[in-house]
Amino acid sequence: MKFYQLPPTERRTELAKDGADLLDVEPAELERLNEMSENVVSEIVLPLSVIKDALVNGKKWTIPMATEEASVVAAANHGMSVFKKAGGVTAESDRTGIYGQIVLEVGDAFSLKKFEKAFPDYIALANQEFASLVRHGGGLKEITAEQKGHLVYLLALVDPAEAMGANKTNAILEFLAQKMEFFPGVTAKLFAILSNYPSQITMAKVKIPVDLLGKSQEAGLAVAQKMALLAKIGEEDVYRATTNNKGIMNGVDAALIATGNDYRAVEAASHALAVKNGRYASLSHWAVDGNFLTGEVKLPLAIGVVGGSISARPDIRQSYSILGKIKAKELAELIASVGLANNFAALNAISTKGIQAGHMRLQSRNVAMNLDATDEEKEAVYQLMISQQKYGESAAEDFLKELRGR
Ligand code: MEV
């Protein structure tokens, strides 16, 4: 039997023979995981954290985030708490649909004009074939085409209703391509597959009174000006832009993972959007407007609240139980708001005390827990690290020596 055909327990035995040290996983859990993927041998577990009391479009939400990086959750909560004091985030998702691409090879007998005239019929045929999607409020919305020599590039816009829609879009595209192959002048179908090009664009905005950013109006204004300058550098300098966007994706990916969404698709689309003007730039924009700091982010969020592995995964279902009843549009608006909150927190920290102080403080628990010491000693070292603001490994070791010497 080939490795991939073995039951997961036997795959584990094979790897163990080669020295792998795998976690114990309950047999039933291993079986469940095995149904989700290929060559399964164990599991990776992430902490599920939340943003408490996020205020988005006038409604309070608890938003799940799955990440191993403590500072990402802390930053999101900090950003959202400032946004809440400022009246909350305003977000809007244009769920117009996701793109699918078909490329056909055509001969001299092909007429683009005639082909375009047939598009309404193709749309009707597809919507008849995929009637259940139409019943759920979605469907094939539009087809456009461009001819480049002997190739015709088609774009189909599919409204996936409450799902991300990748599988459905691919099925619609294959159905269409099969029909289109018979159109006069079409000689071959080259491919038919969804495109991860930016779609389902979602915008989140905040307007923060500067006095929330400092001890006085004047101090707050100075912080806001530094933050806006840092953001402007991100719009012009690719080194800063990349890091700025990483900070946004810190929050976005964590929320995507917690809600069972395809973060690879969102990442790919976000990078395409970041380079839309021919130069990679920041996905967010911050400015000072009188006594306010205004911020906004625009993200392509092809996400869903049903479909994919969402209902099959108990770990993901718990996130939806935290969120409560939610539409895909609302979830996209929350995720864009989280990205903006993480971006705000990063710009704010960099413009004031620097990023390292907060990061190190949050990492210090891990540093203390890695010491070769008893649980009581580790806790005591951690408390000393926090109270004395010394967060590195050597500081932890010194504290341990000091404790033992007492
Ligand atoms: C670290 O994970 C993310 C930041 O570097 C983002 C930024 O610099 O904007 C803090």
UniProtKB/TrEMBL annotation:
Keyword Cell wall biogenesis/degradation (UniProt): no
InterPro entries hit by this protein: HMG_CoA_Rdtase, HMG_CoA_Rdtase_bac-typ, HMG_CoA_Rdtase_cat_sf, HMG_CoA_Rdtase_NAD(P)-bd_sf, HMG_CoA_Rdtase_sub-bd_dom_sf
Source species, domain of life: Bacteria
Pfam families per the UniProt record, alphabetical: HMG-CoA_red (PF00368)
GO molecular function ontology, one term from the record: hydroxymethylglutaryl-CoA reductase (NADPH) activity
Keyword set includes Signal: no
Annotated GO biological process: coenzyme A metabolic process
Keywords in alphabetical order: Oxidoreductase
CDD domains on file: HMG-CoA_reductase_classII (cd00644)
SUPFAM superfamilies: NAD-binding domain of HMG-CoA reductase (SSF55035), Substrate-binding domain of HMG-CoA reductase (SSF56542)
Family note: Belongs to the HMG-CoA reductase family.
Name under which the protein is recorded: 3-hydroxy-3-methylglutaryl-coenzyme a reductase
Organism this protein belongs to: Lactobacillus equicursoris DSM 19284 = JCM 14600 = CIP 110162
